[in-house]
Amino acid sequence: MFYYKEELINPIVPDQPDPAAARVLQEILGGHYGEMRTMMQFFFQSSNFRGKDTQFRDLIRGIFLEEIAHVELVQNTINQLLNGSGESNAPGDSGADHAPLDETVLHANPHHYIIGAQASLPVDAAGNPWNGSWVYSHGNLIGDLLDNLILESTGVLQKSRIYEMSSNKTFRETLAFLIVRDNAHQNAYAKALETLGVNWGKLFPVPNYDINKYPECRKYVELGYHNVQFNFRLDQTRIGEIFSGQTPSRNGGDLAVVEPPQGFPVPLMPEMPNEHSPGTKDMNF
Amino acid sequence: MFYYKEELINPIVPDQPDPAAARVLQEILGGHYGEMRTMMQFFFQSSNFRGKDTQFRDLIRGIFLEEIAHVELVQNTINQLLNGSGESNAPGDSGADHAPLDETVLHANPHHYIIGAQASLPVDAAGNPWNGSWVYSHGNLIGDLLDNLILESTGVLQKSRIYEMSSNKTFRETLAFLIVRDNAHQNAYAKALETLGVNWGKLFPVPNYDINKYPECRKYVELGYHNVQFNFRLDQTRIGEIFSGQTPSRNGGDLAVVEPPQGFPVPLMPEMPNEHSPGTKDMNF
Amino acid sequence: MFYYKEELINPIVPDQPDPAAARVLQEILGGHYGEMRTMMQFFFQSSNFRGKDTQFRDLIRGIFLEEIAHVELVQNTINQLLNGSGESNAPGDSGADHAPLDETVLHANPHHYIIGAQASLPVDAAGNPWNGSWVYSHGNLIGDLLDNLILESTGVLQKSRIYEMSSNKTFRETLAFLIVRDNAHQNAYAKALETLGVNWGKLFPVPNYDINKYPECRKYVELGYHNVQFNFRLDQTRIGEIFSGQTPSRNGGDLAVVEPPQGFPVPLMPEMPNEHSPGTKDMNF
Amino acid sequence: MFYYKEELINPIVPDQPDPAAARVLQEILGGHYGEMRTMMQFFFQSSNFRGKDTQFRDLIRGIFLEEIAHVELVQNTINQLLNGSGESNAPGDSGADHAPLDETVLHANPHHYIIGAQASLPVDAAGNPWNGSWVYSHGNLIGDLLDNLILESTGVLQKSRIYEMSSNKTFRETLAFLIVRDNAHQNAYAKALETLGVNWGKLFPVPNYDINKYPECRKYVELGYHNVQFNFRLDQTRIGEIFSGQTPSRNGGDLAVVEPPQGFPVPLMPEMPNEHSPGTKDMNF
Amino acid sequence: MFYYKEELINPIVPDQPDPAAARVLQEILGGHYGEMRTMMQFFFQSSNFRGKDTQFRDLIRGIFLEEIAHVELVQNTINQLLNGSGESNAPGDSGADHAPLDETVLHANPHHYIIGAQASLPVDAAGNPWNGSWVYSHGNLIGDLLDNLILESTGVLQKSRIYEMSSNKTFRETLAFLIVRDNAHQNAYAKALETLGVNWGKLFPVPNYDINKYPECRKYVELGYHNVQFNFRLDQTRIGEIFSGQTPSRNGGDLAVVEPPQGFPVPLMPEMPNEHSPGTKDMNF
Amino acid sequence: MFYYKEELINPIVPDQPDPAAARVLQEILGGHYGEMRTMMQFFFQSSNFRGKDTQFRDLIRGIFLEEIAHVELVQNTINQLLNGSGESNAPGDSGADHAPLDETVLHANPHHYIIGAQASLPVDAAGNPWNGSWVYSHGNLIGDLLDNLILESTGVLQKSRIYEMSSNKTFRETLAFLIVRDNAHQNAYAKALETLGVNWGKLFPVPNYDINKYPECRKYVELGYHNVQFNFRLDQTRIGEIFSGQTPSRNGGDLAVVEPPQGFPVPLMPEMPNEHSPGTKDMNF
């Protein structure tokens, strides 16, 4: 069973709305290699695990738990990027010759303003809905670990590419945090395969990202976030049997299971009358 | 952030494998009105909530937390129904004129034996993958509550129909538990709409299921599970501002927020060499 | 605007339930080349028509109108094949060792018993949902006519193949009627291309079906249904400028626009308490 | 069977082409909560209806008939918004350094210019094709009515949001008419549930739209279009047993079944040689 | 079995990057009527062919072989249009207030920069993935030929429409070559139906494109590319039994099977460090 | 450009029809990890390759070429399993009380008899169409190689699981050949990663299949097919720079690039009048 504290795993840094950034950030939420995929893939692999070597199951499940918090973080980041983006600034904007959203939606995913009230959706950067066929849970441990490894590597890859698409601070801070965490999860799966006999040489991290290009990453690396796994279990776990000792990455350091970060506030979004959200203004309750 | 204890929300009752039952039970996991949908829909609605009346957000989020445990329960139930279903009983079964799975897959979802190692998948009873376009999170509170209400009602409806498709005890126990819990969640959303001024008369429960037709439900009703909401929050929640007082159902009783059930063991599945799962027999670790 | 009389275009012939037949007949309703496709394709082509040669638009629209009635006919046929198929005959069937639907769903589309209350769905014979990408409305008249021609030819082809899958009379009568009507619509589009200069030689009908293999077709051919187009317009139409004169088929005869068939009763389906349908038994209204 | 008069249910108001508006208006045609969905959902529910309380079936079917005309209206509106949008104004536009569509398609759905000849498509505002899995026809009357109610409420919600995306008159007039009609259909399903015992208090209309924000709506409200249902039946119907008496909306008034609106001309679209539509210029016929 | 020489079937003409052109050109690669569809459709029809009249199978297979080269050509054209489009020109572009891709992706398919490293994808112009349900291989020869004919006609139609969307030379040259080749394949299927008795009159080519509007086409027509079929077989083929004699097109000329074009270089794409492609800079190999 | 000789890469071993086997074998053709995926994935990776280390591109392209032949082999195998499966043996089978296909389709994919004339389709074992979103071509070489490695490993895994589903010889021979070839391709990608510094230890082959359980594999292993790559290039290739030296598999041996196998006849399928295939019996040609 699953328990919750209303705290985000990383802060939402304030900046201006940026609907074009929100559109591309959807890839990280609902894309083929996004956080919904990692969350569901590790969930299915955890529940479908076979055999007694449950240290692997506990590793996968431990990362699954963090991925739920990642989904929550990206939802909130997208919401912040959209929030207020479609509001009219001037009086009379809904007059005959101008509409408050006409410019806004040109470079946005229009569904952000039609289906949602300027809020996140389970779709990718091109507007395609999340699809269950993407989940890989084949029951062969090596297959599952290799697929998880490539999934986390692609996570870093795509996030570093999306990072280039806006200099918005809300956007980049979340991406930077997730790049470093994906790196940690890459280390986790690479280490698990090391216990099965693989020596990775200097292959990882993949991609070989230069921390100087992503300055927001630096503080997370300095906190050691690329080499730790947060423990969200309220009971015992064997995760430390795998996630310990020397990192498989050429960047060095030792792996360690640690407490989750202090939590950060979940932003409360204002009412948005133009979107009829929540739309209960005149109710008596 | 999300925390976890390795305990199921309800026991897995032992019985024989039943792959045809596993096939139809997939609807409850990955179908249009299944637990993955409720989980993701309430997740998005929680994160996308607007305005200060956070008692509604806390209600939706509280149910979301339970839905994660429902997904876990259905995954484990499907696994139990599949587990061992494709194993050969007789010597020489993989000989020239017989294959151990030939009869098994005739009435099964073949993907249970190809993609998974006799394990659950994010698909529905017809084998279609789960689809993100099904999630409804429109930001209008009344719209969201009404849609959640019909979603939980359809949950009971489909589960009572699927119940007729096998008398397997593993299958029926999980269905019976979920029928009663969907009834509770139906009460939750109906009650929320009551606070906005609706009087439901004698409309609920929908469908108007007769507890005598689903004998496994009785003990859950006697425990009052149709009128309680389990609280998975580790911090404060305003859920009780809505989920309290008289039930909106004609079956009567008072609503109450309570502690989650005692946990039940997550079954450990045996190795399955024919499916190469986990397939690490000869590794040295 | 569209008007309606509650009458089917052809009778529903009574026979036993046959859920396996209902499963494959779904292809004719929600498949890539089924009646929903023809209905929507001709609807879009009618509305999107360009230019003054509206005799072509009126031809396409005229067939569109009939296709709505075909959708209704196939929905009702599937319902008849499903109706009662999952009802228990013996007392105590929902007891511990037997479930009323366990055998029924083995060769059925389980969604017929889960999503619908033993009723038709917008899906194909493999359970895939109808998809808008199948509609062809490209605005080039020759392209549209050729595509409509192949669509109607495939209609006959698939119906004659499905005909072999059950000897159920309800099933075969509807298929036989639609085979002959698809033949008429094939003639319509072939004739339209004749007016643009094509001489088809002896190519049609495609496929070259032998009426003796589909004895139910005979009466419809004797009625001349392969060479007429029913007129559902309440105002003027130019359809006769194309649909007249010698048939383009080697089977001969003259094309004519005629009144629709006398209508046939739309069956009223009984309540089905096991499926909670309609499920209002205890309501006071 | 279905009959037709070539008349639109509401006029197409002339204005300039606006391909960005056409793109977002596709949501109302082929989106999850668009007119194709309402049309098909009410069609399936009508044909799949069980039991003797056919006043409900006649209500659903009556609204289905109007939805076909809504699909036709939205197709024609999109066509008007696209028509001529991609034509070159200047001589020599297809020369070496400029192409007539290069600017046009930047903010358009490119499929409007590739698949269709500047014409409507069965897709949503993000370009995803219409999907049959969206149709809800579960056979439980209360479930179906609740789902129809939320579907019509979402119709108003999305249309009022899309209204903000362009001040084009063609676009806004169609949206305004449909907002008021969706309101009427919301009243229809809310009233049907009233007959089953629900008292809605002051919940409806959902969303609680302010008519002053959508000035084009006013005349339709003054005509009473929010409280009437047009009758497209050529035979008897029991719809009036439900759709009569006091409206369930707090805006007040009495419900009444009335004749359809006088019809309005279906625009005839000009040839578009650049799109090869219809492309029969040199044919002899 | 299939053999390969690293040569393109037509040259890639150099010009500036044009990501908006790349986006729409995806239709020709991964769209409903694109080259992946023709390739796979003719592949399935070839392998599934029934009967002894293998001259038809050899015709279909011969065109299939060319379509593989068309897919390769369009992939390379898209790559050329994307290559370098997202590179920063100015120093310090990844600084705090500007990102190198922010303007670039506004009118692009963002997946070109997220999933691929500025490279082609199996999707259409609206970003929808290629779908196997589009393939038509029904086994009825006339049906298959008619469908292939309309497929090739739509190929010309869509390419001529896309041609208007950019004056980029890389883009237009590939489109022009493919327009003429689709015309040849249209002739092939029209001729095959002629051998079965059809006389097309002056119907083809469809659409009736004016070569003066697509000046890049002229040289290919002068080379006779609209009336030849390239032979990629290393063994015997009966294709010439159909593809010979007078063209079915009103443009005249004789059909002939000829050697493939001389090959053209496959461009080698530079490393793209910003996209981490290939991302092996620091490896020792 | 691509050239062809009409020869299969492995023989089709004769046996009885087996439509249930054909249904599950579709996974190997059109499934998420089937031959269409490997073919298209390696095609896109080859064309989208960046940088000068073209030995990797030539390796990927070399395997792509073989995958086209694999697709052809599986299409022909499925056809053989279906061929004649639906034919009636007894006289009068299409009489009033029996249909020749009624039993046949119960455990088959009905589309094999409706869409195709008892022939292969681009779908998976559950009937879902092939989907372009499955293709991984991300442009990061390590990412691509790791994904290809897991793709080939999953190929062996799924084929060994499907092998258990029928003892039909046609079915098993093709699976056995492909298991050994997937093993070779697994070796290829594992070796490529070795050149980038990885030491796999004893991890491969994945899964660790026991050749004694798949006796048909033995002869292919004895031919060394698990350690060779067939060369389908008509020009130079750098593939041998990677595919040479010691295998990365613990089963040992040296890798070598060799000539393709001698070709085997492509079966000619008989006419099937009941399916109207090819359906030209009465034509004069």
Characteristics of this structure?
mainly alpha; calcium (chains A, B, C, D, E, F); Mn-containing catalase (chains A, B, C, D, E, F); 4 strands; Mn_catalase (chains A, B, C, D, E, F); Ferritin; homohexamer; 285 residues; 3-stranded mixed sheet; 40% helix; 7 helices
Q: Approximately how much helix is present in the residues of chain A?
A: 25-40%
CATH topology of chain A: Ferritin
Work out the strand percent of chain A: under 5%
The overall average pLDDT of chain A, rounded, is 94
Q: How many DSSP H or I helices of chain A?
A: 7
- How many structural units, i.e. domains of chain A? 1
Q: Largest interface: which pair?
A: A-B, 78 and 78 residues
Return residue spans of chain A where pLDDT drops below 50 for at least 5 consecutive residues.
89-96
CATH class of chain A: Mainly Alpha
> Helices and strands of chain A: which structural class?
mainly alpha
Number of distinct beta strands of chain A:
4
Strand order of the largest sheet of chain A: 2-4-3
- The helix/strand order of chain A is EHHHHHHHEEE
- What Rg of chain A do the Cα atoms give? 20 Å
Distance separating the two termini of chain A: 33 Å
Shape-level CATH architecture of chain A: Up-down Bundle
What multimeric state do the chains show?
A: homohexamer
User: What does the overall shape of chain A look like?
Assistant: globular
Tell me the CATH superfamily of chain A.
Answer: Ferritin, core subunit, four-helix bundle
Major beta-sheet overview of chain A: 3 strands, mixed
